[in-house]
Structure formats: structure tokens, C-alpha cells
Amino acid sequence: MAPSPAAHKAYHDLHSSAAPAVFSDTLLASLVSQHSADLSGGEPVRPAPTNGGADPRVRPEPAPLAPAGPKHASGRKRSSTACDKCRQKKIKCDNVKPRCGSCARNGIRDCCYSSETTGPDFWLLEMAYNGLASKLDGIMEELRGRGARAAPPKKRRTHASPGPGIPLWDASLTSLFAWPYLQEQLGWDPRHAARHVGRVVSACEEPSACWPAPGSVEEQLATAAAVEADFQQHFGSHLNAFLINSHTKVPFLDIAELVELLEVFTLIRNADPRVTVLRLLAEFHALRSTERVGACYSRALVAAGREDSRGLQKAYRNLCETMPMLLMVCAIGVISVPVSLDNIGTYENSLEERASMGAHKTPKAAAGPAAGQNRFALSQMYIAHAAYVTAVFPKSLRPSTIPSVKYHVLLSQYHHDTLNPSLAHEEIIIASTGLVLFIEKTRMRAGLAAGLADVPRDDALVNRLFWTCLKLECELRVEMCPHVPLSAITQITPPSSFFKIPDPFQEGDHTSESIRIANKYDDQNTWYYFLTEIALRKVENNMLDEVYRARLDRFLWDCPRFAKYHVWKLTIKYLNHLNSIVASLTPAIRKFVLMETDPAQIYASIKRKASRRKKAVCEEDQIPQILDDFLVDEDLLHHAQSEAVMFIKTRILSSKMILMRPLVYMCLHGQILFEEITEAAAEVLAQAQVSQPDLSFNEFPDEMSHSSSTTCTGLASERSIYLLAAMLNFLDNDDEDLEEGEVQQSYLENLSKTSGLEDFSDLVELAESNDGLEESYQTDYDMARKRVLKWFVAGLITIPKLTIPKLSLYRHPGSWYYIRNLVLGVILLFLMYRRTRDYVVNLMKESKAYDQTTNNTQSVEVLSLIFKKEDVQTLLEHALLVLDYWKEERKDCAVYGEYLRQCLSCL
Length: 907
Fold this sequence. Notes:
Keywords: Membrane, Transmembrane, Transmembrane helix
Helix content: 55-70%
Shape: flat
Structural class: mainly alpha
Largest sheet: 2 strands, antiparallel
Domain Zn(2)-C6 fungal-type: 82-113
Strand order of the largest sheet: 1-2
Transmembrane segments: 816-833
Distance between the termini: 88 Å
Organism: Metschnikowia bicuspidata var. bicuspidata NRRL YB-4993
Radius of gyration: 37 Å
Protein name: Zn(2)-C6 fungal-type domain-containing protein
Strand content: under 5%
């Protein structure tokens, strides 16, 4: 039965009432059509076309639905069949046409019928529409009320859980290409800036040169056999290299567990030398559910005369369940090397260094002829074998499990060592996503089971993995955003609000032999340095959120309010945070971090060594080169964990460069007058002349006594880091037992230890709030502007002197970041020099025109002491030498070299 026109009208009345965002119009239309079809027994009611030729996709202003109730539903309508005259007289009509009988008898000629419609009763159909509309009204009102009542739950102040609106950053090297002043100096068309960004991004995505994988089946089998032989003979040496050269930088694995796995594998191999990785895994995955260990394990215990225990059984199962991860540990152990600051004098380029065996003395018979002479090839064979094991035994690397997360974190670290940032980002995203799924599954099970914790909070391994994944992903985010996606790890509540150092090894958890060996590798200073890294990472993340937001309608640094107020407040805020972290270091390490050297002499030394290597001069060793050393006491570096100290030094420098970059932009584009820079430079130079000389390292003998006070120093430093974390609102009240007075006193003491140019404590006040201690600032922006500009000028002078130039030629997981920051710093100094030169030229012209020689001459002299052409040229030449060393392996270095050569030609 077809619906009547009134039904059409009722449908349109309902359809014109647009629902809120929760329900789409399509959904409402489908509900109404389906309901009408069910009632009418025919086709669903279709909406009438829109009037007036308007776009049917544009809906009119929504109107509220008419309330359904007895008033509208009580009257039962029937089709009208009587003529109009009979209806007026309220008499019966015989419905004869054209004139009914009553009108014919009474002589009425205008007998007409106002409605020609005849049909059945449709009162029930309209009642159905009204009922449906009433129900939809109730649902919509409930949803509106729920949306108004819903409020986001209060979360603790941690960058790991910023919510779905986490901003994208644009702080990478390519962000400079949009600067108008840079485009002007390099002669770029502003319309083609995106092309230069695309060049760099494409070069970064291109993997570095890889060792060719074996093609035929015979070659693959030979490679697998070579890896098996090398793993059996050199597993211990590769693990030792990993723990010394890589674990100290990212300490997330359990050393005692790794040593225990080595112990069990050695036990099995001593009993049966024919056991290989594949045979071991094949036996393990063939075990029944009632069997705990395999036959090779039982035979090994009998042959060694050892008693079985739950700890050994657990170690055996861990060995089989984490075999791909162990192969990855060996790959990193092969490719990683100890600190070497003389690579430029030994190798022609990074490919030659990457292929050298160095301390790895693997015989050809063990790893094949190719890998026996090539460190990188051997590591690639381990990578391929790990992928093969995963393909043959899928259960050995199940997704969203802790072994899988460890594997992908290690693979990301391997790609960092081989300078493949795009592959490293891909792997850390997989690791972060898997860890998030693991944490959420644990929380879901905890919510369903009584008596379990609501979060794996006490699991030290999950805690370490979380902060490791977050740190590694954010580091890549800084350099690759906004061109890469984010994982969910930035949007969940962390297991703990700050990184926690694991407890000492327990006898019941591991074998006594593995604990004895692990204690030799486990160093309290390593954890202390990693705590410092996490603190720096969190401060920098907040800084990037506020200062380097991407994809805004207008570039933030061009906003007048940002240039007049916000930049000074944010600079003081985050500079105080960075200085507090520096002040929390031990005195000797703090002095090393702040120590300045003469970079020009070190650049000249590196250049001499490169020239001598090319000319193959044999008397190189006979010429004393005092400056070729690190310029720091070797005992100091040894006792203070030299690698970690160097990386903390460079890490703090990179954070300060991020803080200085908006000020450089504002100087280049006229938002900061150069007269202000000149005034600040004069005050800095005057203050430098009367400042006291720095203290020497010998004034801290107790701190550097490795035999007596290393543990005490480490514990004291941990406490200072935790105090700092509490001050920065990184900790919850229940995470650490810290008194509010202790936190505030530590914060103010740390600020008082900084130098005068970086001490803004008089502009900061701590106030108690619901979220903890918050900072408030004085409103004297003129004073803040002058003080910040003095710090900025001092930073332009000192940052080149705080670098470690030879570290740029050493392979480590942060090599790519170091190279990018080097290029970034060189370009910034070049632009500041060019801007200074333009200002000086205009100043000299004004002197001749207005006879202001005295004042202008003083300004020129001050600026010439800070921005020197020779210094900028030396820095450019050094950066080009570094880029030439890496460009064969890392293709984007060749692109950076082109830009720096353009800068050099503009000098």
C-alpha cells in the first residue's frame, strides 16, 4: 500500500529536523524509511526533491521536531467525500458528480468537491511516524545532556599523555628553508622552497648502502651456516661489545638475563657441539604443553653434572623465546665500536670504517669469506638470519609481546648505528605500538580480574621500555616531523610518571654466576645519565609543544604578541629548566659539560690529519699533536663514563640551540633591532673581562675518586634528578617521598649555581596550585628582553666552544642527529654573520651621511669581536669535511654539502 501525501509531509517534517553531530542525517533517513516500509508493506518513503533548485547536499537550518503526544494523535482523520455545500449544511451527500442530488433538488449550480482523494484510512501510519519522532527526540535530548555533562578527566602533567590533540612539531633542519632571509641569501625562489624540503626528505628516506643479500638457495644456506658458526663461537664477545658500546647509551635490557642466556647456551653447546639455533628452536617448538624443557637441555645438565632448577628452566625457555632478540644483540655488538676520535686520520670515509673489523677478529672459516673481512656484512648476516628465524618459527616473535618490543627497539638502534633514520623510525613505531597494546591488554585484564593492579606499574621492564620507546620516538620526531606519523605511546598514561632505576639483582631471580658477571657491567652512573636524558627529553618536548607547533594558520614567530611577550617568557622558563638539569650534575661532570675549548685549533688538527692520510705521510706519529687529544684528562673520561658525559654535553647544547632558534629568526627578520644586539654584546664583553677564571677539575678530587666515591656520587645525583623531576611536575605525589620545601629549596639552589647571564631566578616565582608548583613571571618584559638578549649573544659566542668536533666522525646511535645539528648550527651562525655584515654596511653609510663616526665605530668594533668571518669560514670548512666523510653512506649529507658550499661562496 503506497503512503499518502500526508505521509510524505510527515517524513519531510521529520527529515528536516537535522540531528546533532552524533547522528548523521543519512542514519535518520534510513531509520524512517525502513520503519515506513514495514508499516506500509511497500517501498520505503523517499524524500521529495529540494525546492528552488538549491543544492540537495546543503540542508536547510534545522528545526526542532514537533512534540508527539495525545493532542496531535487524538483526532482520527478520514478522507472527505461530501461536496462543500453538503458539508456546510451537515447533511448527507450522495456523491453524485458533477452535481449531487441535494444540490440538484435545491437548484445549487456550484456543487464542487474540495478533495478528490479517495482511499483507505491512514491514521495508523501517521501515529507510527509520530511515535518514531518521539523516540528520536528522547535519544537526542539524552545525548545532548550527556555531551554537556561530560568533562575530560584530569590527568597528571606528563608529556606522555597529552590527549588526542598533541601538536605536530616543525623543528627539523628543513624548517629553516621557509625562512625568507635564508632564501634571499642563497638566491632561492620562495616558490621553490618546498622542492628543497622534498630533496632533503627524499634523501633521508633513502636507505644507506646495504650489503647485498645472497640470491640462490645455496648462498642462503651457506650464509645461515656461517652465522650459526659465528654465533656459536663468538656469542660471548658480541654480547660483551653490545654491553660496553651500546647498552650504556640505551640501558633497557636486563644484563643478568642476557648473561644467563649466554650461560645456558654455552651449557647446551658444551654437551652437544652439533646443536644449532635452528635445531634448538625446532625442538623447543615441538614440545607438548605438558613438557617444560627439551631433550638437549636435559642431556646438557647430565653432562655437566648440574642440578636442575626452576631458574635454569626459565632461562632455557627465555633463550628459545627470545632468540631473534639475541641475534639482534649480536648484530649491534658487531657494528658498534668503542669511542674513537681519530677516524678521519685512519679511514677515507665512513664506508671504509663501517667495513673494518676493528676489535672483531672473526675468522673467515667461521663467518664466511665476505663477513670475515667486513664488519657491516657480518652484522647484516645476523639481521637476515633473525628475519629467517622469525619466518620459520613465527611463535618466537609474537606481536604485542615484550620480546617483540625488545626486538624492534634493538632493530631501531641498529638502523641508528648504520645511519638509516627512516628505517629506525619505522621500527620504533612498531615497538611503541606493540608496547601500547601490551599495556592496554594488561590494564583490561586487570579490570576484569579482582585483586590485580590496574596497571603494570611495578614491572621495571615495562617501565624502562616505555620511557625508552618514548625517548627514541620523540628524538626522531624532532628531526622528521611533520613528515612522519605518531604512535599511540604519546597518548596513553605512562606506567610511571618518571623513569625508575631497576632494583639490584636478586639471587632468586637469576643464577649466582650470571649475577656476578652482570654486576661488572651494571654501573650506577649509566642509569644516572639515562635519568638525565629522560629529564632533558621531557623539558624539550614541552618546549617544542609551545614554540615549534606546525600547521598553524600563521607562523607563530611572526605573530606580534609572540615577539613582544611570549618568546621572552618561554625562553626564561625553559632556560631555567635546562640550567636546573645542568646544576643537578655532579660538580666534575658539570664543569666538563660547561668547559670551553678553542674550536679553531681542533678544526685545524682534524684537517691536518685528513690531509696526512690522503698524502700517506709516514712521519705522522713522529710529530707531537697535543691538540689531537680530547683536551681533557683521560682518567677523568674513564672514571666519569666518557661516552655518557660527551653525549650529555652535546645533548644540552642541542636543547639550547632549539631555544635560541626563534631569537635568531627574529633578529634576521627585524623583530629584534640590531641596536639591541649591539647593546647586549657590549655588556657581555664587558662582563667577560671582569669575570673570574673557571675552576679546574683538580678542585673536585673527591667526586672523581672512582674507587671510593662512585656509588655515593651516583646515588646523590639520582636524588638530585628526582628532585628536579618533582620540581618540573614530572612526578606524582605518590611516586616519590619528597617534601614540598625540599623541592622548592633544591630548585632555587640549582638556579643560584648557574652563571650570571643564565640566572633568571629573580624573574621567576614559585606558586602552589592544584597541579603542584607552577612558575609565574614578572611583567617587566623590557627587563626580560634585555636579559634574554645578553644570554643569546653569549650563547652565540660560547656554543661553538662547547662542542666536541671529533665526535662528529665517530659512529654511534646519535651520529645522524649530531650531523644535522652541526649543519643547523653552521647555517644559523652564517646567517647571523651575514645579517651583521649588512647592518655594519648600513651603519658605515649612515656615519658618512650624518657624521656619527664615534658611536658607529664603537658598534662596529663590538660586533666584529663576536661575528668574525674567519670563524664562520673555518666552521663551514669543518662541516664540509664531516659531510664529505659521511656522504657515501648517508645520501642527505651530499645535499647538505651543496647548501653549505653555497653559504661558503656567499662569504
